[in-house]
Amino acid sequence: MKKEQQGFSLPKHPFLTQSQDPLHVLEELFSSYELKDIRIIQWEMLKAALASDYFSLQKERNDAVFFYETILTALEAIYMLHNKGEKETVVKKKKSSPKKALSKKSK
């Protein structure tokens, strides 16, 4: 790997390079955008890239479409993991809710 490319393998965003919690980035992403919005934005970006002269070879266009599909699949998996954590928190809160505790005491 060329020396100038070595930095591409490391996180570049200041938030991630400051040893902050990377899960906060996911919280920000999914509180700012719904999954359908992410899909639409990603699709519009791909269409714009393919319509430009940037990808002149068919192989480059194929690679761009494959990358788009792979990134979108990864984002959907991250979304599912993120929501699973939220649902587990809600379930835990419901199990320990005061209403249930009071109703058990009154019986």
Keywords:
single chain; 107 residues; mainly alpha; 5 helices; 73% helix; globular
Number of strands: 0
Strand content: under 5%
Number of helices: 5
Helix content: over 70%
Compute the separation of the termini in Å. Answer: 70 Å
Outline type: globular
Low-confidence stretches: none
Kindly name the structural category: mainly alpha
Computed CA radius of gyration, to the nearest angstrom: 21 Å
Would you tell me the overall average pLDDT? Answer: 77
Element-by-element helix/strand order: HHHHH
Oligomer: single chain
Q: Describe the biggest sheet?
A: none
Provide structural commentary.
- It is a single chain.
- The chain has a domain of 60 residues.
- Helix content is 73%, strand content 0%.
- The chain is built from 5 helices and no strands.
- The model has no long low-confidence stretch (mean pLDDT 77).
Question: How does the SSE layout of this entry go?
Answer:
Blueprint: H1 14-17, H2 23-32, H3 35-51, H4 58-95, H5 98-106
Helix pairs in contact: 3-4
In short, what is this structure?
The chain is mostly helical.
